[in-house]
């Protein structure tokens, strides 16, 4: 497992994850996960990337120029299963984060050349979907879906999958810039489990098997999906949460199912 470049373990410190084009095969998606103590601050100046700041747990204040969003964040644990607040900041701008309580924050990045307004994406703005049937059920919070114009490139969603269910299943991919049939979107998964000693299995594989990794994913891990199919299996007794960041040349989520497994969708 040590040579698996798709599974990233958290580190100690303020920045527990940092995934970008310098340490992964990703060109469009970057990710940071911050763990902040009360009153701890984080400042960043964006260059050619836009950023979605997700108040994963706890409460934070986000400032950018004359914009100030105070005490945002709605939950102590992601497993409260309620949407949370986020802030979109465009390329070329500086933002600051201050923790109003102990907080975990996800910073999702994608390339951007066109500046857009700094925007609060409130919990009430998240649409909630229930997808799948049989043992493929999951709940989705859409933070930045492809239908909104808040961001240039970024797509950000949260997904909950209950014990014994599969997610991102039947296996699907989005690694071809071939719209309207399929879009090219890289992806990262930030995972948490409840209870936290749990694990899930995630496989990432391509048709030609140039990528074919099956990983035991633990609480706080990140899985990188530069290409290929990427199903997740959740064992009995545990609930899975993951936050997806996607980006590519076009902000459109158009996926292609793995044909040998597509029959699962048409069962009676």
TrEMBL record:
<comment type="function">
    <text>Involved in the isomerization of 5-deoxy-glucuronate (5DG) to 5-dehydro-2-deoxy-D-gluconate (DKG or 2-deoxy-5-keto-D-gluconate).</text>
</comment>
<comment type="similarity">
    <text>Belongs to the isomerase IolB family.</text>
</comment>
<dbReference type="InterPro" id="IPR021120">
    <property type="entry name" value="KduI/IolB_isomerase"/>
</dbReference>
<dbReference type="GO" id="GO:0019310">
    <property type="term" value="P:inositol catabolic process"/>
</dbReference>
<protein>
    <recommendedName>
        <fullName>5-deoxy-glucuronate isomerase</fullName>
        <ecNumber>5.3.1.30</ecNumber>
    </recommendedName>
</protein>
<dbReference type="InterPro" id="IPR023770">
    <property type="entry name" value="IolB_Bacilli"/>
</dbReference>
<keyword id="KW-0413">Isomerase</keyword>
<dbReference type="Pfam" id="PF04962">
    <property type="entry name" value="KduI"/>
</dbReference>
<dbReference type="InterPro" id="IPR011051">
    <property type="entry name" value="RmlC_Cupin_sf"/>
</dbReference>
<dbReference type="GO" id="GO:0008880">
    <property type="term" value="F:glucuronate isomerase activity"/>
</dbReference>
<comment type="pathway">
    <text>Polyol metabolism; myo-inositol degradation into acetyl-CoA; acetyl-CoA from myo-inositol: step 4/7.</text>
</comment>
<dbReference type="InterPro" id="IPR014710">
    <property type="entry name" value="RmlC-like_jellyroll"/>
</dbReference>
<dbReference type="GO" id="GO:0102482">
    <property type="term" value="F:5-deoxy-D-glucuronate isomerase activity"/>
</dbReference>
<dbReference type="InterPro" id="IPR024203">
    <property type="entry name" value="Deoxy-glucuronate_isom_IolB"/>
</dbReference>
